[in-house]
Amino acid sequence: MTQRRLVTRWLGALGVTLSLVGLISQNAASAQTLAETQQRANQGDARAQTTLGFIYQSGDGVPEDSMQAVVWYRIAAGQGYAPAQANLGVMYSNGTGVPQDFPQAAAWLLKSADQGYAPAQANLGVMYATGQGVPQDDVEAHKWLSLAASGLTGDAQKGYAEYRNVTARKMTPAQIGEAQQRAAEWQAAFERRQAK
Length: 196
Description:
By secondary structure, the chain is mostly helical. The protein has one domain (3-195): Alpha Horseshoe (Serine Threonine Protein Phosphatase 5, Tetratricopeptide repeat). The protein contains 10 helices and no strands. The chain has helices at 3-14, 31-42, 46-58, 66-78, 82-94, 102-113, 118-130, 138-151, 154-168, 173-195.
C-alpha cells in the first residue's frame, strides 16, 4: 500500500481531515447575532469577519455561499488573523469557493501555522506527509504534527500525535531527531517572537 493511500485510509478511519475551523457554535447565527457580526465585520474586526465567513460557509442562518465565505476569510486573513488564514488554506485545499490550489493552500496554512495556530500546523503537517502543495517531506510533516499535537488537547492531540507516530514509523532515527530539533528550534523562535 502506498504511503499516500495509507495516510488517506488512516485519516479517514480517525475522521481526521483538512477541516474548516469554525468560530461559532451550531445555530448561533440568530438574526440579531448575524446583524451584530456583520456590523463588526464591516468595521474591520477580523474575528467577526472570520465568523461571518464560517456562517456563509456553513449556511448557518444564511444561504450557503462558499464564494462569500472566501471573501470574508480573505479580508480577515489579510489582517494576519491566523484562524482566517487557516480557513482560507482549507478552502483552497478543498477547492471550495475557489479553484483547488494546493500550493496556495499550503502558503495560507504556513502563514497561520507560523503564528502558532495548532489546527493550521496539523493541516500543514498532513500536506507535507502527502506531498500536496509542498514537496513530500516526512521530517517537516513530523515537525508540524509534533507542534500541532503540543498545542492541542484531547482527541485532537491524540489524533495528530498518532499520525505523527505513523509518519515516524517510516523515518530513520536520524530523521526523527532532525524533526524534533526543527520543532524545538521553531518553538524557541516562536516564544522569542511572542516575548517581544
